[in-house]
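Hi F.,

I've been meaning to write this up properly since the lab meeting, where we talked about keeping a consistent format for the predictions we share between groups. The idea is simple: the sequence comes first, exactly as it goes in, then the structure tokens exactly as they come out, then a line or two of notes. No screenshots and no reformatting. I'm using this chain as the first example so we have something concrete to point to.
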Amino acid sequence: MRRSWKSFMTDHFCPIELSWEWGYPGDSRTIRFSSEPISLERRTVADPLNQYSVSRLVHRYQHILPQCDIRCFDHFSKELLSYNISGSETGRSTGPTEHESRTFIAFDFSTQGVMLKAYFIPTFRALEAAKSALTLISEAIQSLPDYTPSRYTGLSALLNFYRTSSDSAKLEAEIFAIDCVDPAVSKLKIYMRGRSTCFNSVQDIMKQGGVGVEPNLARRLKELHRLWHLVLGKKLDFSPSEGLNHKDHRTAGILYYFDIRPGQVLPGVKVYIPHSTTAQTILL
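Output, unedited:
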């Protein structure tokens, strides 16, 4: 009997996740269905690392979804995924990853239609290349056919922030994602985990990562402070230098994502509040 597949999609290894984006007043809402397709041929010669089934699905969807473009998917699959099964039992996880996942897909359902997204976990390839995951991701972006430094200034800003900020030094790149649309407009997303969990660190990363130039930043950080209090069960006057209760979990910490778009000067930044590993209650 084959071992169950521990998906990195969720903290409890479920390969399916549903979410929604509220947006701002006047924006259309987006419903998102994310999954890690798990092949019946996983850990076999046909698909030892559970990667070929995902690729087959994505290539099939390009003929179903009108705006689906898989050029970026093919490029980053080649640059970020490992197909090496030597030294493992047909895909057993190795090193510090503690999971076997390599790729996810997601569908955004909105009034504009359905958009396919793809997520890559570069950890395995980075270990093979003896590079950091962020280095591997940045090199993959820089090898895009249409890449120029002036076109992707958001990447340069992020790398500069990472090199010079003490807060960014605590960040670890874990997931890279793309929109499967025309590469000229595809949003590139780098998910990074920070082990520092105090609110001061969150604020610093949100500001220095590119959001700091936003005119409404002070108001939005104030809103984030209140949301932090509500979701995590903190007192309203909690100390911003106090870290969250530590739990020994692979996904403990704070997850951020930096989005880089062609022509965008600075990366956008979002933060995920870790209620599943730190909150005492999720009643708002």
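Notes:
The helical segments are 52-61, 71-80, 123-129, 133-142, 153-164, 199-208, 217-232, 275-278.
The CA atoms of residues 22 and 29 lie 5 Å apart.

If this format works for you, I'll send the rest the same way.

G.
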